[in-house]
Amino acid sequence: MSQEKTRFALYVSSAALDEVSELYTSANCKTKSEFIEKAILFYASYLHTRRASEFLPDVLSDILSSSFTRLGDRMGHLLFKLAVECNIVHHLIAAANEVDRDVYEQLRNRSVREVKSTNGEISFLDDLIFQKSI
After folding, report:
1. Which end of the chain is less packed: N or C, by CB atoms within 10 Å?
2. DSSP character for 55?
3. pLDDT-based confidence at residue 55 (cuts at 50, 70, 90)
4. Mean of the pLDDT values across residues 76-97?
């Protein structure tokens, strides 16, 4: 079902008409008029997109803000659960071992240095080897 076409006068430069003549068959158009119509619709879509970009950053910002808020809430929840489990392990280790305050302070200072120097990439095996060497 074809749409009704309207005829009108079109004044274009010779260079533009040469471009149409050269490209309309490669664009799968049967006529130069079809090519020009597609070009008009393409350019109109481009202009609509440019207008849409004026409000798009606000919409995108709202979506990203919402996503990051949910991510932050989820990470906070997971970190809380991890802290609870870590606290349980601390209590179990403290109950099973006799470590005085001075040894604890030395171990804590060493741990802070290790975490800083390895950027948080610590290894249980490295710690085990160190403890066995004492």
Report:
1. N
2. T
3. low
4. 90
Q: Which two tokens stand for residue 16?
A: 């533009």
Token code pair at residue 97: 């071992």
Q: Which of 9-13, 37-41, 50-54 has the lowest mean pLDDT?
A: 50-54
Percent of the chain with pLDDT over 90: 38
Burial label for 109, CB within 10 Å (0-12, 13-18, 19+), is exposed
Distance, C-alpha 110 to centroid of its chain: 36
**Mean pLDDT along residues 119-125:** 84
- The token pair at 24 is 């309309």
Q: Do 24 and 31 meet the contact criterion of CB atoms below 8 Å apart?
A: yes
Calpha distance 37→18 (Å, rounded) = 16
The ranges assigned to domains in the chain are 14-52, 98-134
Q: Please tell me the distance from the alpha carbon of residue 35 to that of residue 17, in angstroms, as a whole number.
A: 11
Structure tokens at 37: 């119509």
Give this prediction's pTM. 0.44
